[in-house]
Amino acid sequence: MRTARVWLRWPVTAALVLAAASAPACATPARVEEGLTGLMVTVVWDPALGIDQLVFSGTLAGDDASVFASTPRPDPPAPLDSGNESLVILLPDALADQMIALRVDALSGGTLVAAGIGSTTPVVATIVQVVVTLAEPAICGDGTCTDAENQCTCMEDCPRVCGDGCCDVGHEDPNNCPADC
Question: Do residues 55 and 77 make contact, with C-beta atoms less than 8 angstroms apart?
Fold first, then answer.
C-alpha cells in the first residue's frame, strides 16, 4: 500500500477556513490541485498555549494500521500564535471509503501541551474537510476516556460497541456489526 503524503500549507486558513473572518493572515492563499484524494485538516486551539509545533498521525480506524508516519509541522518548530492552522494530507485512492482516525499533538518547546482527534472517511478525487480542536492531552492507556480520545483512537480507554463507527477487528465484522464494518 502506498503511504500518504503530508503537505502543509501555511497559512491556508485565510481562504479555506476563515473566509468570513477579518483580515486574512496572508495575501495569497495556498491552492490545492483538484482531483486529488486527501484530507484538509484544520486544527483549532487556544493561542495562549504557546504552540510551536503540531504533530500529525493517522491510522485506519478499528485496526490501528498506520496511514502515514507521525509528521511534525512546522519543522523546525516556529511560533504558531494564530489559534488555527490547516494542512492538506494527500492519500492514495486505495484509502478511499476507509475510516481514518487522526491525532494531532501540540508541542511548546518540545513539551506536549494539547492534543485532539478527528476521524473521517476519504472520498476518491476529493479533499475532505476535518476539524480537530485541541484540548488537554490524552494519554491512551491511562484508563480514562477523555474528550481527546474515542473508540476509534484508543480502545484501551474507550470501550467499543457496535454502532460506534469503528470496526473493532477481531470482534466485529460485516456479519455481526454491519454498522461499523
Answer: no
